[in-house]
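Handoff note, outgoing to incoming analyst
You'll be picking up this chain. Sequence as last confirmed:
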Amino acid sequence: MSPRTARGDDARRGVAPGTVLSAVVVILLLIACPLVVRGAVRSQYPWAADTVAVMLLAVVAAAVLPGAWRLRGCLGILALAAGMIAAGGGAALPYLPPVAVNLALAGLFGVTLRAGSESMISRFARLERGTLEPDLERYCRALTWIWTLFFVVMAALSAVLAALPDSTAWQWFSALGNWLCVAALFAGEWVYRRLRFAHYRHGSPLRLLALIRAKWRA
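Most recent structure output, in case you need it:
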Protein backbone atom coordinates (compact mmCIF):
# COMPACT_ATOMS: atom_id res chain seq x y z
CA MET A 1 0.00 0.00 0.00
CA SER A 2 1.41 3.36 -0.99
CA PRO A 3 1.74 6.21 1.53
CA ARG A 4 -0.88 8.20 -0.39
CA THR A 5 -3.35 5.29 -0.25
CA ALA A 6 -2.67 4.77 3.45
CA ARG A 7 -3.27 8.43 4.19
CA GLY A 8 -6.49 8.30 2.21
CA ASP A 9 -7.68 5.30 4.23
CA ASP A 10 -6.83 7.16 7.44
CA ALA A 11 -8.80 10.20 6.35
CA ARG A 12 -11.90 8.09 5.69
CA ARG A 13 -11.82 6.50 9.12
CA GLY A 14 -12.86 9.77 10.79
CA VAL A 15 -12.05 10.84 14.31
CA ALA A 16 -12.06 8.26 17.09
CA PRO A 17 -14.65 8.99 19.82
CA GLY A 18 -11.88 8.70 22.43
CA THR A 19 -10.09 11.67 20.87
CA VAL A 20 -13.10 13.94 21.23
CA LEU A 21 -13.97 12.64 24.71
CA SER A 22 -10.49 13.08 26.16
CA ALA A 23 -10.18 16.55 24.64
CA VAL A 24 -13.55 17.57 26.09
CA VAL A 25 -12.61 16.25 29.56
CA VAL A 26 -9.30 18.15 29.62
CA ILE A 27 -10.92 21.36 28.35
CA LEU A 28 -13.71 21.15 30.95
CA LEU A 29 -11.15 20.60 33.72
CA LEU A 30 -9.08 23.58 32.60
CA ILE A 31 -12.18 25.77 32.44
CA ALA A 32 -13.60 24.58 35.77
CA CYS A 33 -10.37 24.83 37.78
CA PRO A 34 -10.15 28.66 38.05
CA LEU A 35 -13.82 28.85 39.00
CA VAL A 36 -13.44 26.22 41.72
CA VAL A 37 -10.15 27.67 42.94
CA ARG A 38 -11.59 31.17 43.35
CA GLY A 39 -14.54 29.79 45.28
CA ALA A 40 -12.30 27.67 47.52
CA VAL A 41 -9.93 30.57 48.25
CA ARG A 42 -12.86 32.69 49.42
CA SER A 43 -14.38 29.89 51.50
CA GLN A 44 -13.53 28.77 55.01
CA TYR A 45 -11.61 25.85 53.50
CA PRO A 46 -8.77 27.49 51.52
CA TRP A 47 -6.81 24.22 51.57
CA ALA A 48 -9.38 22.91 49.09
CA ALA A 49 -7.95 25.27 46.47
CA ASP A 50 -4.52 23.65 46.81
CA THR A 51 -6.07 20.20 46.48
CA VAL A 52 -8.00 21.19 43.35
CA ALA A 53 -4.91 22.71 41.75
CA VAL A 54 -2.72 19.66 42.38
CA MET A 55 -5.42 17.23 41.22
CA LEU A 56 -5.99 19.21 38.03
CA LEU A 57 -2.29 19.29 37.17
CA ALA A 58 -1.99 15.54 37.79
CA VAL A 59 -5.04 14.72 35.64
CA VAL A 60 -3.89 16.96 32.79
CA ALA A 61 -0.38 15.48 32.96
CA ALA A 62 -1.79 11.96 32.79
CA ALA A 63 -4.05 12.94 29.89
CA VAL A 64 -1.66 14.82 27.63
CA LEU A 65 1.93 13.80 28.40
CA PRO A 66 3.60 11.16 26.20
CA GLY A 67 3.63 7.68 27.69
CA ALA A 68 7.20 7.77 29.03
CA TRP A 69 6.58 11.07 30.83
CA ARG A 70 3.21 10.49 32.53
CA LEU A 71 4.43 9.03 35.81
CA ARG A 72 7.40 11.40 36.02
CA GLY A 73 5.10 14.34 35.31
CA CYS A 74 2.67 13.40 38.09
CA LEU A 75 5.48 12.80 40.58
CA GLY A 76 7.08 16.11 39.62
CA ILE A 77 3.80 17.93 40.25
CA LEU A 78 3.45 16.40 43.70
CA ALA A 79 7.06 17.27 44.54
CA LEU A 80 6.58 20.86 43.34
CA ALA A 81 3.39 21.27 45.38
CA ALA A 82 5.03 19.85 48.51
CA GLY A 83 8.03 22.12 48.03
CA MET A 84 5.88 25.23 47.61
CA ILE A 85 3.86 24.44 50.73
CA ALA A 86 7.00 23.67 52.77
CA ALA A 87 8.58 26.94 51.63
CA GLY A 88 5.51 28.95 52.63
CA GLY A 89 4.33 29.48 49.06
CA GLY A 90 1.12 27.52 49.42
CA ALA A 91 -0.99 30.63 48.81
CA ALA A 92 0.30 30.80 45.23
CA LEU A 93 -0.32 27.11 44.52
CA PRO A 94 -3.99 27.48 43.46
CA TYR A 95 -2.93 29.90 40.72
CA LEU A 96 -0.22 27.60 39.37
CA PRO A 97 -2.10 25.33 36.88
CA PRO A 98 -2.66 27.85 34.04
CA VAL A 99 0.94 29.08 34.30
CA ALA A 100 2.39 25.56 34.55
CA VAL A 101 0.33 24.16 31.67
CA ASN A 102 1.30 27.01 29.34
CA LEU A 103 4.99 26.86 30.29
CA ALA A 104 5.01 23.08 29.86
CA LEU A 105 3.54 23.44 26.37
CA ALA A 106 6.05 26.18 25.54
CA GLY A 107 8.85 23.89 26.68
CA LEU A 108 7.59 20.91 24.66
CA PHE A 109 7.41 23.02 21.51
CA GLY A 110 10.53 25.06 22.18
CA VAL A 111 12.86 22.14 22.83
CA THR A 112 12.25 20.91 19.27
CA LEU A 113 13.65 24.16 17.86
CA ARG A 114 17.21 23.22 18.76
CA ALA A 115 19.65 23.06 15.87
CA GLY A 116 19.43 19.73 14.12
CA SER A 117 16.02 18.86 15.64
CA GLU A 118 12.78 18.51 13.75
CA SER A 119 10.27 21.11 14.93
CA MET A 120 7.12 20.01 16.73
CA ILE A 121 4.77 21.25 13.99
CA SER A 122 6.86 19.45 11.37
CA ARG A 123 6.35 16.22 13.30
CA PHE A 124 2.61 16.82 13.37
CA ALA A 125 2.57 17.60 9.65
CA ARG A 126 4.41 14.36 8.83
CA LEU A 127 1.74 12.40 10.68
CA GLU A 128 -0.79 13.73 8.20
CA ARG A 129 1.27 13.95 5.02
CA GLY A 130 3.93 11.25 5.34
CA THR A 131 6.51 13.43 3.60
CA LEU A 132 7.06 17.15 4.04
CA GLU A 133 7.96 19.48 1.20
CA PRO A 134 10.81 21.99 1.83
CA ASP A 135 8.53 25.05 1.85
CA LEU A 136 6.19 23.37 4.33
CA GLU A 137 9.19 22.37 6.45
CA ARG A 138 10.26 26.01 6.76
CA TYR A 139 6.71 27.11 7.47
CA CYS A 140 6.26 24.47 10.18
CA ARG A 141 9.45 25.55 11.92
CA ALA A 142 8.33 29.19 11.92
CA LEU A 143 4.92 28.12 13.19
CA THR A 144 6.55 26.18 16.04
CA TRP A 145 8.27 29.41 17.09
CA ILE A 146 4.91 31.18 17.05
CA TRP A 147 3.26 28.54 19.26
CA THR A 148 6.21 28.53 21.66
CA LEU A 149 6.09 32.31 22.12
CA PHE A 150 2.31 32.22 22.31
CA PHE A 151 2.34 29.82 25.27
CA VAL A 152 5.00 31.92 27.03
CA VAL A 153 2.82 35.02 26.63
CA MET A 154 -0.25 33.15 27.94
CA ALA A 155 1.72 32.00 31.00
CA ALA A 156 2.99 35.53 31.66
CA LEU A 157 -0.50 37.02 31.39
CA SER A 158 -1.90 34.44 33.78
CA ALA A 159 0.87 35.14 36.30
CA VAL A 160 0.37 38.91 36.09
CA LEU A 161 -3.40 38.63 36.52
CA ALA A 162 -2.96 36.25 39.47
CA ALA A 163 -0.87 38.92 41.23
CA LEU A 164 -3.68 41.50 41.08
CA PRO A 165 -5.66 42.16 44.29
CA ASP A 166 -8.91 41.14 42.59
CA SER A 167 -8.76 37.66 41.07
CA THR A 168 -11.79 38.14 38.81
CA ALA A 169 -9.71 38.94 35.72
CA TRP A 170 -7.43 35.95 36.40
CA GLN A 171 -10.44 33.70 36.82
CA TRP A 172 -12.05 34.56 33.49
CA PHE A 173 -8.80 34.72 31.55
CA SER A 174 -7.64 31.34 32.87
CA ALA A 175 -11.05 29.68 32.46
CA LEU A 176 -11.97 31.04 29.04
CA GLY A 177 -9.70 33.72 27.59
CA ASN A 178 -6.56 31.57 27.43
CA TRP A 179 -8.28 28.70 25.64
CA LEU A 180 -10.27 30.92 23.31
CA CYS A 181 -6.93 32.39 22.23
CA VAL A 182 -5.59 28.87 21.63
CA ALA A 183 -8.65 27.99 19.55
CA ALA A 184 -8.41 31.25 17.60
CA LEU A 185 -4.73 30.72 16.76
CA PHE A 186 -5.33 27.08 15.79
CA ALA A 187 -8.32 27.90 13.56
CA GLY A 188 -6.75 31.03 12.10
CA GLU A 189 -3.55 29.20 11.20
CA TRP A 190 -5.52 26.40 9.53
CA VAL A 191 -7.40 28.90 7.36
CA TYR A 192 -4.19 30.79 6.51
CA ARG A 193 -2.38 27.56 5.62
CA ARG A 194 -5.15 26.48 3.25
CA LEU A 195 -4.89 29.83 1.46
CA ARG A 196 -1.08 30.13 1.57
CA PHE A 197 -0.51 26.53 0.43
CA ALA A 198 -3.64 25.98 -1.64
CA HIS A 199 -1.70 23.72 -4.02
CA TYR A 200 -1.31 21.08 -1.28
CA ARG A 201 -3.88 18.74 0.23
CA HIS A 202 -4.95 19.60 3.78
CA GLY A 203 -6.84 17.38 6.21
CA SER A 204 -9.50 18.54 8.63
CA PRO A 205 -8.45 20.00 12.02
CA LEU A 206 -10.25 17.19 13.88
CA ARG A 207 -8.48 14.54 11.86
CA LEU A 208 -5.13 16.17 12.56
CA LEU A 209 -5.94 16.28 16.29
CA ALA A 210 -6.78 12.56 16.16
CA LEU A 211 -3.43 11.73 14.52
CA ILE A 212 -1.54 13.88 17.04
CA ARG A 213 -3.34 12.24 19.97
CA ALA A 214 -2.60 8.73 18.70
CA LYS A 215 1.10 9.52 18.28
CA TRP A 216 1.35 11.54 21.51
CA ARG A 217 -0.23 8.83 23.68
CA ALA A 218 1.91 6.04 22.18
